[in-house]
Structure prediction request, 389 residues.
Amino acid sequence: MRITAIREMPIPLRGDVSNALVNFSEHTVSLVAVFTDVIRNGKPVIGIAFNSIGRFAQGGLLRERFIPRVLRCAPEELLAEDGRSFSPAAVYRAAMTNEKPGGHGDRATAVAALELAIWDLNAKLAEEPAYATIARAAGRPAAIDPIPVYAAGGYYYPGDSLNRLQTELKSYRDLGFVDYKIKIGGAPLEEDLRRIHAALEIAGSGEHLAVDANGRFDLKTALAYADAIAPLKLRWYEEVGDPLDFGLNAELSTHYRGAIATGENLFSTVDTVNLLRFGGMRPGLDIFQMEAGLSYGLTAYMQTMQALEERGFSRAQVLPHGGHLINLHVVAGLGLGGCEVYPGVFQPFGGYPEACMASQGHALPTQAHGFGLEEKPGLREAMAELIQH
Prediction:
């Protein structure tokens, strides 16, 4: 059993939306396919995954460095001990040959797309959903309960209005969501407060609404917003300043009694450990949003979860960034606290197939083999193009 080819294709995100810092109309995502010599129903078994939403495709890094390193390995070097599956850790090590420590960033997302495709591949070889494969690798039970999910949206649109924001959140409520997240920091404080209050009319109370500044604020602005939203008792206050400004985060945590959420822009276990050491994060309260698709894949991500628990934090505090189907399997397999969903934006990657949605703000992966990406309209067509390319 061996890998016969690896392909990457950049897929553009659909839509013209913005957060406090970034317009996503030019963003792309790397879709990666790993082909094998295993034939089922007359076709090769193929593992497919992508890095994440909100960054850029990494075709150059994948084609020039990471894919060639994996393909140069002898077939047996990439197999698990049982010889019936591939080793994600071995693929990760091969991809990272001659890479110096540090310098994560885009490298972390490129390797993640490749490594996650191995998990999809292994689940398809085992003829099971990816969450079961992940749970077994983590020594956890494969049986799962419905997973808490929240609808992320509330972006800034050209010609934006409060009515448009409320209409968007109502559409999420109609899909079965009860928890929501909207953007702040792309408008003056007074206008953002009007947006928050408009969203609260749909959410019902602060415990069902989170806000996300996407790293926009300096400490003075962060504290001003904290004072303004504190009476609303929101679910959390997210990504307030630069993700590596642990001092700002620590200062905010002494000032703001509500939950703080951060971590989506930390791309390694060591970065997360430094957040725990210096960022003022509070066990049992604050939210961690690191994502496997941005941090070298699941091999490294499980090390990050171990580092959290060793320092007194619970994996129930982890709700990965990303809003896509791969993360639903990661949350289910690792027993994390919940999952973000992009039901209305970032197509074809955002959101889940209709069959995944349960009720009252919960979801479940289907029993499709692998991550089940083939079940998602739009993404299914992109995958077919990659395979046939």
